[in-house]
Amino acid sequence: MSKKTIFSKLMYSISLLTILWANSAQAGSFGANLVVNGGAEAQAFLGYIINDVTGWVGDGHWGVYTYQATNTYFPLLSDPGPSDRGANFFWGGRGSQQSSAYQDIDLSFAATEIDAGTVSYDFSGWLGGLSTLGDSTVIAVTFYSASGQPLGNDSIGPVTVADRHNTTGLQQRSATGVPPVGTRSARVQMTMTSSGTSTTYGNADNIELVLTSSSGTGGGTDGGTDVVSSSVLRFFNWAEDILPDWFAPRRPQAGVISGYQYRCYQNTAACLVVGNDRLLYIGPYSNNQAVDLGAFSDFLNAALAAGY
Fold it and tell me: Three-state DSSP class for 5?
């Protein structure tokens, strides 16, 4: 397909950038992480705990801190944890032996598939604590009906001090299942518990809730998909990590419009778009015009070679 044909499909009566911004703010899609700011990267760390955290409702103690280089009271950049950990992580904070935060997620976009029993979920996160302290984290997901009645739940964690072998770090935990029929929303809540002090050193990172529909068309990179494919998500993650000044915050919601898979970045006012094995960029470096960067498969190969 020629560049002209691609652009004619993408350029509606208003700019593609406007369309993508609008869609990126709407409800989620299959195959993408539905947790907003699950990696704690939405705000820059300025040297003190962040309590007002994008996407989350905290209790005033819980918040965000940054991975350290030498401060052994917090996870170090070299400690066990996610390979794509970014700059920040969630931690329990000071002033209480237990702290928590939650966010509510609209799942109504999947109502038909959920009620047909064709939807499954993957729920995961990296959880940990500090050294020989028994502080820990549990993350739960509760599914609700349209009227707010709880229908079911699942949880991951804790990662115990024994699991960590008395060392500082995070380990991944995950759960899979099927949202109950009638589910229209979910609440993801993390709870950090101290082993005895008024500072809670439980921590977490890279929290994800992903819905998959067996009735979807799958995850190809052509113009017919209605699901964000895992290969496209891997590429997006790689691009964000190697070009953080271009694509921030990391790991925002991805989506699909007219068969084109995209991810938009509020902080840098840019979008990446994949379709028909082409990669498009829209943002300040292209004067907000869609620019064809080349074959998506070439970029994907680079991301896979880098371990994504």
Answer: helix
User: For residues 156 and 79, what is the distance between their CA atoms, to the nearest angstrom?
Assistant: 21
- Contacting residues for 163 by C-beta, under 8 A, at least 6 apart: 171
CA distance 187 to 150: 10
* pLDDT of amino acid 9: 42
Tokens matching residue 273:
């778009």
Tell whether omega for the bond before 249 is within 30 degrees of 0, i.e. cis.
Answer: yes
Residue (of 7, 10, 64) closest to 37 by Cα position: 64
Helix (H, G, I), strand (E, B) or coil at 244: coil
Q: What is the 3-state secondary structure (H, E, C) of 94-117?
A: ECCCEEEEEEEEECHHHHHHHHCC
What separation in angstroms does the CA of 103 have from each of 106, 277, 305?
10, 35, 35
CA–CA dist 82, 205 (Å, integer): 8
For the chain, give the mean pLDDT: 84
pLDDT digits (tens, 9 = 90+) for 240-270: 999 999 998 888 878 887 778 888 888 888 8
Taking every pair of Cα atoms in the chain, the longest distance, rounded to a whole number of angstroms, is: 64
> For the segment 284-297, what is each residue's pLDDT rounded down to a tens digit?
888 878 888 999 99
Q: Treating both helix axes as pointing N-terminal to C-terminal, what angle do 296-305 and 230-242 enclose, rounded to 10 degrees?
A: 70
Cα–Cα distance, 186 to 261 (Å, whole number): 24
- 250 bridge partner residues: none
Closest CA to 45 of 199, 247, 249, 203: 249
- Which of 21 and 170 is assigned the larger pLDDT? 170
